[in-house]
Structure formats: structure tokens, C-alpha cells
Design a protein that fits this description.
Length: about 230
């Protein structure tokens, strides 16, 4: 996936962010803006703005007499979309998928329960549209993934809870990483049926059924991932 910002600033942020997440340089390692300018063949202004962007994500900091340095992993904004994506690029496999699956197991069933209780006609229409897009894009993995992301995003939005909805960045990262693993093997059996069950329960305004359906969906996803990672 390409970095969403264009231009040299975005390229520096993307490359340096990936390097930091991979451990090069290591935490507390020094970053020389002049050397970075030479490496990327960009102006001091571009380097400064790129470092500001990475500082906002918790990856770097600058102090008088100490200069610019990489912050410890515990200071990183781990839910930042770019930091999540860079972690997938570097860690790539079971550990991060497991962590995100555990977050989803806490968040999404509760979101589905609230969505069934609070959904509006517009929410149902948006959920139906996302489901239809998933069905129409099975042969187009990137489009299918984005339709899947949209489906889960609508469920959280329909919960009427802004804090739950804000966690969609975690859900989106988990789905995109999972789909890169799963989609190369085709759509998993039962994928459409589990999503249909969530849609039906939300549409019918049945909180218990919606929560159960989402738990079933996540359990099936975990089985799919485990089968491929162990295979």
C-alpha cells in the first residue's frame, strides 16, 4: 500500500517510519537531520516536516543538547493507521494478528449489540450496501477488502457511540492485514453467511442475535487465520 501523502515529505515519512518500526535505528538511536537530508536528497524543510509528522505519531522526539532520537516503543501511537500498517509490514504475522483479533473480540460484539438497538434506516441501508459490494467484488480482492472494512465500520457507526466508532482504525487495520493473508486463497467458506447473520440481526433490531452473530463471525475469522498460519 502506498503512503497516502504525496511528494517528498510523504516518501520520507513512509521510508523512515518503516525503518524505525523495524528497529533501524533502535530506540534512543540518534537521527541526524542533515544526514537524513543527504540520504533522501531533500531540503532541510522537508526533513523537518517529516520529523514533525513522525513525532506526532510518537516515534521520534527532539531535545536540546540531545538532538532528535527514536522514542521507545511504549511511547509510540500504536493505533495510528500508519504505525499499524508499518507494524504489519515488519511483523507481518501471527503476533500482531492475534493482538488485533483480541481487540476485535472485545469491541465488535458490543458494537453490534448497540447497533441493533440504535440503528437508523440510513444505517441499515449503508450496511446492506456494503454487504452487496462484498458480494459483487469477490473476484476483486482489494475492492472486496474495502467493502468488508466498510461493513464493519458501519456497524460501529450505527452503535451511536463515538468512542467505539473511533476504534474503526484498529478494525480496518486488522481486516486489511487479515485479507492480505486470506484473500490469496479465495473467499473463506462461510464468509458471506456470517456477515449476512450480522446484517439480519441489526436490521431486525435484535441486540442479542447481533452480538452472537458478530462473535460467530470473529470466531470463524480466527479459525481461517489459524488454518493458514499453521499450514
Amino acid at each position: 500500500m502506498s503512503y497516502p501523502r504525496r511528494g517528498m515529505h510523504g516518501e520520507v515519512v513512509e521510508d523512515l517510519g518503516r525503518r524505525i518500526v523495524s528497529g533501524d535505528p533502535a530506540p534512543s538511536g540518534h537521527l541526524d537531520p542533515v544526514e537524513l537530508g543527504r540520504r533522501y536528497q531533500v531540503s532541510h524543510t522537508v526533513v523537518r516536516e517529516a520529523l514533525k509528522t513522525l513525532a506526532a505519531k510518537g516515534l521520534v522526539d527532539a531535545r536540546p543538547k540531545r538532538g532528535t532520537f527514536v522514542r521507545p516503543r511504549g511511547d509510540w501511537s500504536l493505533l495510528d493507521p500508519d504505525v499499524l500498517r508499518w507494524q504489519f509490514t515488519q511483523r507481518g504475522g501471527s503476533d500482531l494478528l492475534r493482538d488485533l483479533a483480541e481487540v476485535r473480540a472485545v469491541v465488535e460484539p458490543a458494537g453490534a449489540r448497540l447497533a441493533a438497538a440504535r440503528r437508523t434506516a440510513e444505517d441499515v441501508a449503508a450496511l446492506e450496501a456494503a454487504f452487496e459490494r462484498m458480494a459483487a467484488t469477490v473476484a476483486d480482492p482489494p475492492a472486496h477488502t474495502e467493502a468488508d472494512v466498510a461493513f464493519h465500520r458501519v456497524v460501529l457507526a450505527a452503535s451511536g457511540n463515538e468512542l467505539l466508532e473511533s476504534l474503526e482504525v484498529v478494525i480496518a487495520a486488522a481486516l486489511r492485514a487479515r485479507d492480505r493473508l486470506i484473500r490469496s486463497h479465495g473467499e473463506p467458506p462461510g464468509f458471506a453467511a456470517t456477515h449476512q447473520a450480522v446484517l439480519d440481526a441489526v436490521r431486525q433490531g435484535d441486540p442479542d442475535a447481533a452480538e452472537d452473530a458478530m462473535r460467530d463471525l470473529l470466531a470463524q475469522a480466527e479459525r481461517d487465520e489459524a488454518g493458514l498460519l499453521d499450514g
